[in-house]
Amino acid sequence: MKKIAIALALCCIGSAQAALFEDDEARRAILDLRKKIEAQSEEIKKNSEDIKQFQSNLIEQQNLFESLRNEIQRVRGEKEELTQELRKQQAAAQALSQGVDERLKKFEPVKVKLDNQEFLADPAEIRFYEAALAAFRKGEFASASEGFIDFNKRYPTSGYAVISLFWLGNSQYANREYKEAIKNFNNLLNKDPEHARAPDAMLSVANCQLEMKDVKSARKTLEDLMKKYPQSESAAAAKERLSKLK
Fold it and tell me: pLDDT class for 29, splitting at 50, 70, 90?
């Protein structure tokens, strides 16, 4: 019995020790688990702070992006306004330039071809000459004569100068101002004896002389005309008139 009692006591002691060992293991396991949980909590907390910081940075970036987008829209708006203003200024400058060019063209010399001659003449010069010629063609010989005299005073070196003497002489002939007409026809012949109107001017001198009853001078003028311009129509007319003077 005693042995049995001792054996039972030993069993109880072993069981108690085993139970105590199991409690220590469980405690350590719990402590380890707690540490892991605390570590995970710290990690979660840290991650949460990182997330918050990231969110804060993201919001800041979004605000910056929105600010930049607004600034870009503002700059685009200003650029569009400046572009429109520039277009308006360019259109105004072009219109002004065109207007200046058109005004300048009114004063720029232009090429004129008259009686197989080419020369440059100012627009005002052309208008002046054509006004006098228009008066002659309308039979306003006194006005035409004044116009051509004034023209030659204003434009003595004009390409129209020689031909204007021809029309001036004809205007004076029509007004029976024969001496003045002869003077201007001779001026034409002296200035440009090869001019296309030179034979006609010489014939007109003879006509003036005939009107003045100066047959001798007229005959000489007609003979000189035939010698100097034998191929001209005026020479043929001079030959016919000479035949009638004999």
Answer: confident
